[in-house]
Amino acid sequence: MSRPFRVSFAATAVACMLGAGNASAQFSNVYFFGDSLTDSGTYKPLLPPGTGLFTTNPGPVWSQRFAQHYGFTAIPANQGGTNFAQGGARVADLPGVPDSPPTATAAPIATQIAQLMSSGPLDRTALYSLWGGANDIFFQLAHSAPAQSRPRNCRQTSRPPRATSRSKQAS
Predict the structure, then answer these.
(1) Has residue 151 been placed in a domain?
(2) Separation of alpha carbons 102 and 87, rounded Å
(3) Is 49 within a domain?
(4) Structural domain count of the chain
(5) What is the pLDDT along the chain (171 residues), one digit of tens a residue?
(6) What is d(CA 53, CA 85) in angstroms, rounded to the nearest whole number?
(7) What residues make up the domain containing 41?
(8) Of residues 61, 56, 37, the one with CA closest to residue 109
(9) What is the pLDDT of residue 50?
(10) What are the CA-CA distances from residue 86 to residues 35, 52, 126 (Å)?
(11) CA gap 27, 19 in Å, rounded
């Protein structure tokens, strides 16, 4: 390696290190919208101690780890925080999934966003995360009849298809 290249490489490395500050300095806050995968405890006040997280009881969900990594918290919005996600939430419709308490009344993601927007101007330097849609798929699958979920050009048969003359000749 030539001397000019080493000096150039070292200068570039130093510039990169100086330019890479704390990631939390890039954002003023973090806001979450979504379903059970992001919900950091919306229903905790209603449930027994040690429960209230859908996917990781008793450990943290991804939104909590993400917020912590950047120097923030992911406290549920109904407890004064910035995590509007609610387990069971669908994108724009009710009921939540499953259609039983407490998730049946989960605020849809569109409503979660509207709640934040109605509180005043949005923070232009905050990070906003939206994750959802799976509960809409689950809802549709649970409410479609088996015949409706089969493509129209497929027919149900109780016996295997018959071999054609071509497949018999290939044998």
Answers:
(1) no
(2) 9
(3) yes
(4) 1
(5) 566 555 555 555 544 444 445 555 789 999 999 999 999 999 999 888 888 888 777 789 999 999 999 999 999 999 999 999 999 999 999 999 999 999 999 999 999 999 999 999 999 999 999 999 999 999 999 988 665 555 555 455 555 556 555 545 554
(6) 11
(7) 30-142
(8) 37
(9) 80
(10) 5, 11, 20
(11) 16
154 by Cβ neighbours in 10 Å (0-12 / 13-18 / 19+) ranks as exposed
The verdict on residue 14 lying in a domain is: no
Identify whether 159 is part of a domain: no
For residue 124 the two structure tokens come to: 């232009």
- Token pair of 20 as six digits: 């890479």
Cβ-count burial of 168 within 10 angstroms (0-12 exposed, 13-18 middle, 19+ buried)? exposed
**Dihedral class, residue 60 (left if φ above 0, else alpha if ψ from -120 to 50, else beta):** beta
